[in-house]
Amino acid sequence: MAAEPQPKALTRKPLLLNKVEGSQEVVNMAAIVPKEDGVISVSEDRTVRVWLKRDSGQYWPSIYHAMPSPCSCMSFNPETRRLSIGLDNGTISEFILSEDYNKMTLVKSYQAHQSRVIMILFVLEMEWVLSTGQDKHFTWHCSESGQRLGGYRTSAGACGLQFDVETRHVFVGDHSGQVTILKLEQESCSLVTTFKGHTGGVTALCWDPIQRVLFSGSSDHSIIMWDIGGRKGTAIELQGHNDKVQSLSYAHHTRQLISCGADGGIVVWNMDVERQETPEWLDSDSCQKCDQPFFWNFKQMWDSKKIGLRQHHCRKCGKAVCGKCSSKRSSIPLMGFEFEVRVCDSCHESITDEERAPTATFHDSKHNIVHVHFDATRGWLLTSGTDKVIKLWDMTPVVS
Q: Where are the WD repeats (predicted)?
């Protein structure tokens, strides 16, 4: 569903701290270096760069390393300073960065996929490197030996990858819109379940191990919060972007979800509220308010001598209604509708001003975002865009 004009953002805004420029092609992924004024980036121009802030206040590369193929993704572990890089040719290369971030040493490279590596995740506790590729495979390797431990064929290429250390469950979201949960053992995996709620492909996943909920972003512009731990199948929709959701990050200490999209929007969602599931849309051959027939209901149209009407649905109650009985619009933030959506007239009257109070703030990054990284210790957000620019934001005015 296309989103309607955005509500006005609150006055608190992220503060743009700096821009990091110099890449020749799109920066596919980047990360803030914890406890340092630094950024690690991998780009389509085949370069790995470590940017450190100089006395001038600008970021300059302390490491500039050319790879044999475009760099599609990365995973950085600050504790070990291990940098795992996925390449367009299917290779994963692992490096160790020096303490001063002025040198990177190759540890090993191995062919993980037959084509482009889409996502990569290093799990320190297991010494595993998890990855997905355009070859429609999820694989995991031993980070010590580089040995392939196992794999699973997905229904499509997967852009979403998350792992729960406690249960050894891996979550894989693919282009078909499906999320697959696998249980990993040392050298085998088993399918736990699959579920699907998006009308477009899954573009990002984010896991909250404390509340045990999974967030999925999609090319259908929506986000769904899946209550995995509750075991009740609860799925909450969040509608706040005008284009595909590109990346998700979660601030555990404040229970706020940060979503960024191809529309340039940064949306900060308050997840510390009691949200409601959106209703299933009901089927009917006539308006469930005034009983006027819909245009395919020829019998009732003939019997009542009335012209058939177009069917709509109320986003609050899910009833099938005609345009006349659903002429009003309203936001329903607790159902995830931060934009105004179609509601039937009776539901419109029942929605209070309190229920219309926003549960998200909206901000314009002024570039088409492809990836985000959030540093919770400082409240900094990194966004990388198709404009080849990395931006650093102070999010403490809105994430607190």
A: 20-51, 195-228, 238-279, 362-395
